[in-house]
Design a protein that fits this description.
about 130 residues, mainly alpha, about 80% helix, elongated
């Protein structure tokens, strides 16, 4: 894999992690919570889950498969299973919330769908430019 691909993965990861962390902080502050009740482990867990999702998404969407939806499914299924596996392992460290698996499914899936929409729009624009050049 090229160096540019790794830089792209790290760039997307960094932007999304920063945005999600800032949103989480704003929501906590808006609710009058001035410290993350889950502490530093929560930040590390978020970083690892996000890394799983972004890396698998970026790698699998480059597969030479048609249609695009097939690439998304191939990226989603193993990355969601890895995320569930990580949640299970984190349960060995501390007790999980009753809604932990539901929460990770909702958060992971919504971010994944957002990435799919952005990638689809980007692919359509590239295809349109390619046809315009020909």
């Amino acid at each position: 894999m090229s160096k540019n691909k790794w830089i792209s993965i790290l760039s997307v990861y960094s932007v999304i992690y920063t945005a999600v962390t800032l949103l989480n902080s704003v929501l906590y502050l808006g609710n009058g919570i001035y410290e993350d009740p889950s502490g530093n482990w929560h930040e590390l867990d978020r970083a690892i889950i996000l890394l799983i999702g972004v890396a698998v998404f970026m790698l699998c969407t480059e597969l030479p498969l048609k249609p695009l939806i097939l690439r998304y499914v191939i990226a989603y299924v193993p990355s969601q299973l890895l995320a569930f596996g990580y949640v299970w392992f984190s349960g060995l460290r501390e007790e999980l919330a009753k809604s932990a698996y539901r929460d990770i499914w909702i958060n992971f899936t919504s971010l994944f769908v957002l990435l799919c929409i952005i990638n689809t729009i980007s692919s359509m624009r590239k295809e349109k430019r390619k046809r315009a050049i020909e």
